[in-house]
C-alpha cells in the first residue's frame, strides 16, 4: 500500500470540508494538514454554514445568520529536509441577528445582533530529519474586529442595556504555533500534534447607550483568542481505505470580553465562557477508482459551557458528514462535502439572569476545495 501521489490525494478527503460550529467562537478548527502534504502543494477552499437556532419559549424562530469563509494554503518542499508553508483561515467568528419584532431582543425596530470576524495567517517552517519525522513551528499573524448591538427586555430595556452598541475596531497581533508529525508511508500512517498560542488583542472601542445618545469613545478592550491543541491521526486499514481521527482542545474557560463602560453600568462581561472546548471527529476515506474517492465522518463537540450568552445560545453538537473527491489527473483534484449538525440545547443568559431555553437547533454545512501539486 505504497503512498503514491494518487493515493496520497485521498488523504485530503479526510479533512473537514465544512466549517465547524464549535465551542466558544471556534469556526475553522485551525487545521495544518495542507502543510503536511508531500512535495509542493497548494489549495483554496470555501465553506458555508446555514444554522437554525430557535426558542419556542421566547418565540424566536431563528437568530443565527448564514455565513461563509474562505481558506487557502501553500507548502513548498524547499530541500530534502526543509519545508516552508503559508496558511490562511478565519478561525473565530460569530454572526447572528434576532427578529426585529420580538420585544425580548428588539426595540424601536432595531434588533440584537453580533458580528465578529478574525483572519489568521500562519507561516511555518518544517525540518524533516528522516522520512518519518517532521518538526515545525512559526509565527501567526491575526486580526480581530467586532460589532454588537443589544436591544430589548432581555437586557433590561432602554433604561439599562437594551439600547447598547459597541464597535470593536480591527486590531492586529501575533502568536505562534509549534508541533511535530510522524508518518509511515508504506501503511499510510500519519499522526500530528500541533499547539497554538493564545493571542492578546487590545481593540479601540466605542460604546454608545440610549440608542446613540450617550457615546463613550477612546477606550481599549482586551480580547485574548485561546490557546489550542490539535491531534490528527490516520492509518491505512485495508486496500485503498483509511481510518482517521481529529481531537481538538481550545482554552475557552477564561475567555471574557469586558468593555469598560458596559462593565461599569452592569458589573457583567459582554461575552464569556465557563468551560474549555473539546471536539472529536472520526471517519473513513476510500479510493473507489483512480479518479474518485470519498469519506464519511462523525463528529462531537462539548461546547464551552451552559448557560451561554444570548449572542450564541447553543451548547456543542453532534454531526455526520460526507465528502467526495474527483481527481482528473495525478496533480490536482476537486473536493466537495456536506455536514449535518445537531446543535445542543442551551439556556441563554444575560449577566446572572437566565433569559430562556433554545432547543431543537440544527445546521447544514457545505464545502468546496481545489488542490494542486506542483
Q: Percent of residues in beta strands?
A: over 45%
Topology order in helix (H) and strand (E) letters:
HEEEEEEEEEEEEEEEHEEEEEEEEE
Oligomeric assembly:
single chain
DSSP helix count?
2
Q: State the helicity in percent bands.
A: under 10%
| Tally of strands | 24
What Rg is obtained from the alpha carbons, in whole angstroms?
A: 22 Å
How would you sum up the major sheet? 14 strands, antiparallel, barrel
Q: What is the CATH superfamily classification of the domain at 5-94 and 119-130 and 189-199 and 226-373?
A: Outer membrane protein transport protein (OMPP1/FadL/TodX)
Task: Could you tell me the CATH topology label of the domain at 5-94 and 119-130 and 189-199 and 226-373.
Answer: Porin
Low-confidence stretches: 1-16
CATH class of the domain at 5-94 and 119-130 and 189-199 and 226-373: Mainly Beta
CATH architecture of the domain at 5-94 and 119-130 and 189-199 and 226-373: Beta Barrel
How far apart the termini lie comes to 23 Å
Mean of residue pLDDT? 90
Amino acid at each position: 500500500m505504497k503512498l503514491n501521489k494518487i493515493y496520497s490525494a485521498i488523504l485530503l478527503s479526510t479533512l473537514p470540508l465544512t466549517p465547524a460550529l464549535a465551542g466558544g467562537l471556534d469556526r475553522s478548527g485551525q487545521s495544518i494538514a495542507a502543510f503536511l502534504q508531500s512535495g509542493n502543494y497548494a489549495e483554496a477552499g470555501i465553506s458555508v454554514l446555514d444554522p437554525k437556532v430557535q426558542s419556542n419559549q421566547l418565540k424566536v424562530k431563528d437568530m443565527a445568520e448564514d455565513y461563509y469563509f474562505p481558506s487557502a494554503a501553500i507548502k513548498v518542499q524547499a530541500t530534502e529536509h526543509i519545508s516552508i508553508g503559508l496558511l490562511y483561515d478565519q478561525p473565530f467568528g460569530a454572526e447572528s441577528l434576532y427578529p426585529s419584532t420580538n420585544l425580548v431582543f428588539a426595540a424601536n425596530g432595531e434588533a440584537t445582533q453580533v458580528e465578529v470576524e478574525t483572519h489568521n495567517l500562519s507561516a511555518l517552517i518544517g525540518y524533516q530529519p528522516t522520512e518519518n519525522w517532521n518538526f515545525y513551528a512559526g509565527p501567526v499573524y491575526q486580526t480581530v474586529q467586532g460589532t454588537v448591538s443589544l436591544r430589548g427586555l432581555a437586557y433590561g430595556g432602554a433604561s439599562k442595556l437594551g439600547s447598547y452598541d459597541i464597535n470593536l475596531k480591527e486590531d492586529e497581533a501575533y502568536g505562534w504555533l509549534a508541533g511535530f508529525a510522524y508518518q509511515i508511508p508504506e501503511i499510510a500512517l500519519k499522526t500530528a500534534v500541533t499547539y497554538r498560542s493564545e493571542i492578546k488583542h487590545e481593540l479601540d472601542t466605542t460604546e454608545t447607550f440610549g440608542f446613540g445618545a450617550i457615546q463613550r469613545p477612546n477606550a481599549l478592550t482586551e480580547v485574548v483568542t485561546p490557546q489550542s491543541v490539535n491531534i490528527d491521526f490516520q492509518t491505512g486499514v485495508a486496500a485503498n481505505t483509511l481510518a482517521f481521527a481529529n481531537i481538538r482542545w481550545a482554552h475557552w474557560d477564561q475567555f471574557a470580553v469586558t468593555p469598560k463602560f458596559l462593565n461599569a453600568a452592569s458589573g457583567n462581561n459582554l461575552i464569556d465562557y465557563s468551560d474549555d472546548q473539546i471536539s472529536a471527529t472520526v471517519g473513513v476515506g476510500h479510493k473507489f477508482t483512480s479518479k474518485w474517492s470519498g469519506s464519511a465522518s462523525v463528529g462531537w463537540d462539548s461546547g464551552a459551557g451552559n448557560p451561554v450568552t444570548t449572542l450564541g445560545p447553543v451548547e456543542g453538537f453532534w454531526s455526520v458528514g460526507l465528502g467526495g473527491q474527483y481527481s482528473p489527473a495525478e496533480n490536482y483534484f476537486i473536493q466537495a462535502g456536506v455536514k449535518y449538525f445537531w446543535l445542543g440545547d442551551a439556556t441563554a443568559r444575560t449577566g446572572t439572569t437566565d433569559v430562556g431555553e433554545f432547543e431543537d437547533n440544527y445546521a447544514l454545512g457545505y464545502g468546496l476545495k481545489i488542490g494542486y501539486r506542483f
